[in-house]
Amino acid sequence: MRLEGKIAVVTGAGKDSRGIGHGIAVALAREGADVAIASHTLANALRVADAVQEMGRRALAIEIDVSQAESVEAGIAEVIEAFGRIDILVNNAGITRDALLVRMREEDWDAVLDVNLKGAFLCSRAVAKAMMKQRSGCIVNITSIMGLTGNAGQANYASAKAGLIGLTKSLARELGSRNIRVNAVAPGWIDTAMTDSLPESVRESILKQIPLGRLGTAEDVAGAVVFLCSDEASYITGQVLTVDGGLVMI
Ligand SMILES: NC(=O)c1ccc[n+]([C@@H]2O[C@H](COP(=O)([O-])OP(=O)(O)OC[C@H]3O[C@@H](n4cnc5c(N)ncnc54)[C@H](O)[C@@H]3O)[C@@H](O)[C@H]2O)c1
């Protein structure tokens, strides 16, 4: 097991077991980590915590709003109280509020930036203190290929996800001397509740553009996260690992 004895925090749990947060939490547990699941919706976090416990690991479900500093500080304090340390943070919580620019409401812009970008800043700041004391740690930010390419109708989401890449690289530079690695995973089209609303015609045209010919799964994303958290990635920091079936090649 590659993460034996590690304590992980994963934000955002998803509506069902196809959620990327669910996949990541279970994959970290399978590799030996104890996992705290911090999500807006406690019922979802509890469901993921059950799945982690079924793998024989300790789990903690916390209700947290990643966009609110007080909520984040209290949630991270709860994890440290329960487990004594934090080795891994996965900033996975995210939302979309799609609209074309001229129809995009200011609150849609703010909400998406607050959860996807400010949320990762607040959670990273909260765990960094513990990780700096430990002189080790690993942060993985779940960005998106939309942060690399942009997407019509997603100016808010693409901006937040591009910002997350800047945050990743800045923190990697800032925290490297304390042996804290910071990387990002950029999923492409993943089959989750977030993509359920895609019209069939759009889904078909997307599939035609993906060299591997299928949507990804939460497990596909989780595999990349586990790798980045493992010792196999001990000399990797400040990188963006794209998990998209070959859709975007840079
Ligand atoms: N599904 C995809 O195709 C895809 C592609 C690229 C990137 N992503 C990213 O992967 C991550 C997970 O996506 P998913 O598809 O599993 O989505 P999802 O909607 O199933 O899960 C997102 C989770 O974030 C939580 N969340 C939302 N606002 C929150 C807040 N303020 N505080 C705490 N938690 C909050 C939700 O409760 C939910 O549990 C997101 O960051 C998303 O942007 C998804």
Structure description:
The protein is α/β, with parallel strands linked by helices and 250 residues long. The protein has a single domain (7-242), classed as 3-Layer(aba) Sandwich (Rossmann fold), CATH 3.40.50.720. 46% of the residues lie in helices and 15% in strands. It has eight helices and seven strands. The protein has helices spanning 20-30, 42-54, 69-83, 106-134, 146-149, 155-175, 200-209, 218-229, and strands spanning 7-11, 34-39, 59-63, 88-91, 137-142, 180-187, 240-243. It has a seven-stranded parallel beta sheet with strand order 3-2-1-4-5-6-7, with helices on both faces. Helix 4 (106-134) links the parallel strand 4 (88-91) and strand 5. It is globular and about 50 Å long. The chain starts with 6 loop residues before the first strand and ends in a 7-residue tail after the last strand. The chain binds nicotinamide-adenine-dinucleotide (NAD). Nicotinamide-adenine-dinucleotide (NAD) is lined by residues 11-15, 19-21, 39-41, 44, 64-67, 92-95, 115, 142, 144, 187, 189-190, 192-195.
The CATH superfamily turns out to be NAD(P)-binding Rossmann-like Domain
Q: Termini, distance in Å?
A: 32 Å
Content of β-strand:
15-25%
Catalogue the ligands.
nicotinamide-adenine-dinucleotide
**Structural class, please?**
alpha/beta
The Rg value, from CA coordinates, equals 17 Å
Total domain modules: 1
H and E string: EHEHEHEHEHHEHHE
Shape: globular
Work out the helicity level.
Answer: 40-55%
Question: How many β-strand runs?
Answer: 7
Please give a quick description of this structure:
By secondary structure, the protein is of the alpha/beta class. It has a single domain (7-242), classed as 3-Layer(aba) Sandwich (Rossmann fold), CATH 3.40.50.720. The chain is 46% helix and 15% strand.
